[in-house]
Task: structure prediction
Amino acid sequence: MEIRRLDVDVSIYRNRIQVTDRTTGKFVDQTAQHAFSSDSSLIANTRFLEDTIVRAIRQLLVGGFSLKDPIAHVVSTELPLSPSQKDIVAIALREAGMREVVFDD
Result:
């Protein structure tokens, strides 16, 4: 079993998170169990956003991973994120175990 650093691309859509493992190409499309978006905001409920992120990342965790310095690249969002929404996303990803969060704008 190979142990490697977790390095993922994250895309955020209304009540849906997509995560791709950059090393293996494995793709997960996770629908929110509880809506984190509202009619007026892509991110309306941070707790449900974090829950959806954790569920998506958990599906990727097959095999050996080093959780030393895991990194998430936010590569796509359905709507542009405001600076405060970027902060919310970064916090949710860090709470999900990501050490570094990069926004690929």
